[in-house]
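Work through this:
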Amino acid sequence: MIEPLWYLNTDEKVPIAQEMDTFVTNLLTFCEDILVLSLEKCKTAFPIMIVEIPEKERDANCPKRFRMTIDESKLKRPQNSQT
């Protein structure tokens, strides 16, 4: 038996199983980016924004790329009443 390989024209033949991890990671990254861009297109007055977590600060057990946080520029500040 020969393990499945893939290649383009005269490129080096690479086992598909070795490339699947890279493929899945890239596909997940692409889907995350599309989701974030879609959410950013929605106009809302709700004071939430999406922030990317720097790679060195991500938890290796749960490597989340994004988090939601309060957008302070959308918060209504109480006006100082002078009496």
Remarks:
- The chain has a mean pLDDT of 86.
- The two ends are 88 Å apart (CA to CA).
- Residues 17 and 40 are 35 Å apart (CA to CA).
